[in-house]
Amino acid sequence: MHKYLFLLFCLISAPISPLCAQEYRVAIAVARIDNTIKKAPNGKYQLWKHPDSLLIDNADSIVFKNREWYYIRKDGRQGLYDRDGKVVIPIEYDRIEQLSGYLFLIEKDGKKGVFNTDGRKILDTIFDEIENKGYEWSDKARLYVRKNGKYGLCNERGEYLAQPIYNEIKGNFYKLELVKDDGTDYLLSFKHFVSDGITILHKFVLETDGIRSKDFYIFRKDTLCGLLDEEGKVFMKPQYTKLVCRDIGYRFGTTPWLIACKGNNYGTIDIYNNVILPFQYKSIRATSIVGCLAVETETGKRFYDYETKKFINDYTFDEYHTSDLYTAIKKDGKTTLISNDTKKMMFPYKYQDVFSQFHHPYFCVKLNNLYGLVDANDKIIIPIMYEDRLWITCGDKIVIKKDGKYGIINLKNELLYGMINHIIVAYNDFFDIYDSMKENTRLDADLNVIQEAKK
């Protein structure tokens, strides 16, 4: 083959005389004959490696797929050859299907097995079902097998990771739940088996130096929670009624904190079971505010800054709701905002509710069931006099409702459109006016009619 390719290269590179052209055509023909599928006079198919090397004769079909594999059917059986003419799977199976770039499913007499691309049978045809849960491009397989109604798990070498004794396999790549009649076993990272009547609740990762990491698993046995390391060994014996980690206190080279409950009292610990916050609080919750926990004390809920290891004592609250820049906190039915950055209260508890405005430094406030706009210093921007929430859109425009009628104002509270009896709905760059008696009207951001909007 190499001499023919060399001849072809030389002929293409040289000027083509009539004699050379003839030689050129011969070279092309020879190159194409290599691994050639031919149809014989009897209607059967042949696979030739060279013009004088017949690999397969009297085949019912030969199909070349993915520029790599010859699928051959003969006498009702199927086999597989590679593009070099090497036998990968002998012609003795009912069906062959590619599971991944490295594995093929085989089937014979209703039972399934697996070959790899090196031509080695890694699973005999003894299974009812085989499914590859690994990545198609990876040489690492995760083969779910079913035999006699039970499930098991094999790797790419055909070795059992879990014997086929389970009713169901659930979970993902780092934690598989292997369910059987008398309980659930766990397989961690497809390596480490865990049983002994425990339930794995959650995984978290400890980054040790920005490159390497260690996995830890929160588990429950009976009614108490503890920690397993990445090999499934007990790292912290079960002793807490609740254990939660959400990367609290996370930094490279530092120890994560966990929220723990002992009896009815909450505290925080590190993974070595050192107490950070004592067990004397009604509840502790992780928040979306960077560096803060919500801790419920006898006097109310407070934020605890676990970076400075201090409580924020400026205020207490009953409830909170966090957005990107601000957190609304509520106490005794009144609401205010704090800055997620500074953790400072922006104005006293005085409003029924407060809503942040996207991309604007203003807040819609509700007082006596009416709505207005204030800034971060609690200065009135739009008087608190309207019947629906106010949202800034189309630059500086706001849809309002007053006395049952609708209009559009600007940030100076100047009426730009209305008041009308029809509902006005604001979008990012247009308004729709809904009229049950005719086609709806659409206005652009400058309040010009741009079309008749469909109902």
Characterise this structure.
The chain has 455 residues and is mainly beta. Among the domains are: 94-195, no CATH class; 196-286, no CATH class; 351-455, Beta Barrel (Lipocalin), CATH 2.40.128. Helix content is 6%, strand content 58%. The model is unreliable at 1-33 (pLDDT under 50).
Identify the strand order in the major beta sheet.
Answer: 4-5-6-7
User: Stretches where pLDDT falls below 50 for ≥5 residues?
Assistant: 1-33
Which class do the helix and strand fractions yield?
A: mainly beta
State the share of residues found in helices, binned by percent. Answer: under 10%
Radius of gyration: 36 Å
**Alpha-carbon distance between the termini?**
72 Å
**Biggest beta-sheet profile:** 4 strands, antiparallel
Strand tally = 46
CATH architecture of the domain at 351-455: Beta Barrel
Protein topology:
Elements: H1 2-13, H2 18-33, E1 36-39, E2 45-50, E3 53-59, E4 61-65, E5 69-74, E6 77-82, E7 87-93, E8 95-98, E9 103-108, E10 111-116, E11 121-127, E12 129-132, E13 143-147, E14 150-154, E15 160-166, E16 168-171, E17 175-180, E18 183-188, E19 192-194, E20 198-207, E21 213-221, E22 224-229, E23 234-240, E24 242-248, E25 257-262, E26 265-270, E27 275-281, E28 283-286, E29 292-297, E30 300-305, E31 310-317, E32 319-322, E33 326-331, E34 334-339, E35 353-356, E36 362-367, E37 370-375, E38 380-386, E39 392-393, E40 397-402, E41 405-410, E42 415-420, E43 424-426, E44 430-433, E45 440-444, E46 449-453
Antiparallel strand pairs: 1-2, 2-3, 4-5, 5-6, 6-7, 8-9, 9-10, 10-11, 12-13, 13-14, 14-15, 16-17, 17-18, 18-19, 20-21, 21-22, 22-23, 24-25, 25-26, 26-27, 28-29, 29-30, 30-31, 32-33, 33-34, 35-36, 36-37, 37-38, 39-40, 40-41, 41-42, 43-44, 44-45, 45-46
Helix pairs in contact: 1-2
